[in-house]
Design goal:
Radius of gyration: 27 Å
Strand content: under 5%
Shape: elongated
Structural class: mainly alpha
Helix content: 40-55%
Number of helices: 3
Distance between the termini: 67 Å
Order of helices and strands: HHH
Largest sheet: none
Length: 81
């Protein structure tokens, strides 16, 4: 069946069979609710965006790159307009 990856990861065949049956039952239930027009779902996707900057080796503390200074100058000029 579809257990190859599960078993390769250290899973047990009986555990896979039980979980696969539950997953198929959920899919069938969802399809049935869609067909009847009774599906209610309150789940929402969660999206996490993380961004950061790494200090370059040898850079002085609180120093800004030429690009950063250009951006800051441009944004300050835009605020004055």
């Amino acid at each position: 069946m579809h257990s190859g990856i599960f078993l390769a990861g250290g899973g047990i065949q009986d555990a896979f069979d039980a979980r696969w049956s539950m997953a198929l039952a959920r899919v069938k239930e969802t399809l049935s609710e869609i067909q009847k027009g009774t599906l209610r779902d309150t789940s929402a996707p969660i999206i996490l965006l993380v961004s950061g900057r790494k200090k370059m080796p040898g850079a002085k503390a609180n120093s800004h790159s030429e690009t950063d200074r250009t951006r800051m100058d441009a944004s300050q000029g835009a605020q004055q307009d």
